[in-house]
Amino acid sequence: MKITRLLPLACIALLGLAGCSKDKENTDSAKLEVRLIDAPGDFSQVVLDVRQVEVHLKNEGAPDGWKTLGFSPQAINVLDYVNGRSALLVSEDFAPGDLKEIRLILGPNSYVGGRDGQRYDLKTPSGQTSGIKLKLDKATVRARETFQLLLDFDVAKSIVERGNWKPGNDKKERYLLKPVIRVVAQDLRGGLRGTVNPVAARPQILAIRSSVLGPDTVSTSADASGAFQLGGLPAGTYQVQFFPSTTAPVGQPAYRNVVRTGVVIVNDQVTDLGTTSLN
Q1: Which residues on adjacent β-strands are paired with residue 141?
Q2: Of 164, 188, 212, which marks where a domain is finished?
C-alpha cells in the first residue's frame, strides 16, 4: 500500500484530531497510532504537560531499547477527551516488531482546575524523571497493518489530594499525580479497494472514518490501471473522496470530484467499492 500526502486544502479541513498520512514507500512497513482517552473526574481541567512519547522494543531493563516517537510537546486537557473522544498523540510509519512498554515524559507545567475556580499545580515526580511507564502485553506491530495503543486515563483514581492539605496552604502542594492508565492494544486490519474510470484521471483518494474517536484520514492514488487499495484501516463507517489529479482532454467530459458515503469497513475483510466514475 502506498500512502501519499493529502491535498493541502483537505489537510486544513481536517486539522485537530485528524491524522494526515505520510508517504510510505516501503510496503513492508506498518503504522503505529497512540491515542489518549479519559474517564471523567471531579475537576474543571486536568492538564498534562506531555513532552515526549516513547516505546520500548527490547526486554525489560535494556536501556537502549527506547524509541522516541514523532510527537510534538503540548499541554493536553484530558477532560476534553471523554465519552468516546480521543486525542491522537502519535500516527507514524513504524517497523514491524514487538512493543514491550510505552512511556510518557511529562514536563513541570501540569495542573488541575478545581471546582472552586482555582488552579493547582499537579506534582508529577516520576513523570518528569523516569516517565510514566506502562507495560504492554502481546503488543505486536505487523507489516501492512495499523496498530493502535489506546491510553485510557482514569482521572478520578489518578489525581490524589494530600491528606494533610488545608485551605490556605501552598497551591503547589495540594494534588499529586499517581497515574492509573489502562492500555488497550489492537490491530486495525480492515481494507478498501476499487477502481476508477476513466483511468487517465489518476485521482487521489481519501478514506475518512466517521467515529466517536474523531476523524481519521488515510490516502492513496489510483495506479495506471485505475486500481487502488488501502490496508490497515480501523473498522467503521467511512466517506471516500476522489480528487482527479489531471484534467480531461479537450472535447471530452470534464473529470469531477466524487464523494461516496456510508462505506463500511470490517476487521479482517477488504471492502470492494467496485468502479467509481469520475465523469
Answers
A1: 97
A2: 188
- Give the model confidence (pLDDT) of 181-218 as tens digits: 989 888 877 889 999 999 999 999 999 986 655 567 88
Provide the residue range defining the domain that includes 220.
190-277
pTM for the whole structure: 0.65
Q: For the chain, what is the domain count?
A: 2
Out of 188, 210, 231, pick the residue that ends a domain.
188
- CATH of residue 263's domain is 2.60.40.1120
Alpha carbon distance 103, 68 (integer Å) = 9
Dihedral pair phi/psi, residue 265, rounded to 5°: -110, 130
Q: Give the per-residue SS3 of the chain.
A: CCCCCCCHHHHHHCCCCCCCCCCCCCCCCEEEEEEEEEECCCCCEEEEEEEEEEEECCCCCCHHHEEECCCCCEEEEHHHCCCCCCEEEEEEEECCEEEEEEEEEECCCCEEECCCCCEEEEECCCCCCCCEEEEEEEEEECCCCEEEEEEEEEHHHHEEECCCCCCCCCHHHCEEECCCEEEEEEEECEEEEEEEECHHHCCEEEEEEECCCCCEEEEEECCCCCEEEEEEECCEEEEEEEECCCCCCCCCCCCCCEEEEEEEECCCCEEEEEEEECC
